[in-house]
Amino acid sequence: MADDLPDWVRAPNIAGDPATYELEAPGGVFVAIDNSWSGGDFARLLDMATVGNAAIAPEATARWWAERGAIRHEVDGGWAASSPEELERIVRIEFFEGDVVDRFLADHDGPSLTYRFALYEYRPG
Question: What is the pTM of this model?
Fold first, then answer.
């Protein structure tokens, strides 16, 4: 790309083996956006959906970025729907297997959920 344009990269989920990606962009900034498991309704959904899945290791991903000198930023956000029923339909798009959504909605009220992002700011040397 031209020097005056940003370069964008979309990588597949690196959960379980973040070491498969080595980043080289001297003089540039690479920002990776990931789900944060540190809080919020969405983190609870992720935890419920991955119980027993050893391939999901959010602490390994955070450690991998930290070892490379990346700075982690936590950003709070959320999903908002027009009704609880609409939120349920949206959540079922992401979590379509098993009874995860049913268990989550059993004690969740309202048309929104909280969502926390983890942004890793990486500046290669």
Answer: 0.74
In sequence order, the 6+-apart residues with CB closer than 8 A to the CB of 23 are 30, 68, 122, 124
> Six-digit token pair at 12?
């597949």
The length of the chain is 125
User: pLDDT tens digits for 31-61?
Assistant: 888 889 999 999 999 988 887 665 578 888 8
**Six token digits for residue 122:** 């990486």
| Distances 119 to 51, 73, 87 between C-alpha atoms, Å | 24, 5, 25
Q: Which residues are CB-neighbours of 5 under 8 A, at least 6 positions away?
A: none
Nearest Cα neighbor of 60 from 98, 10, 16, 1 is 16
**In terms of C-beta density within 10 A (0-12 exposed, 13-18 middle, 19 or more buried), how is residue 65 classed?**
buried
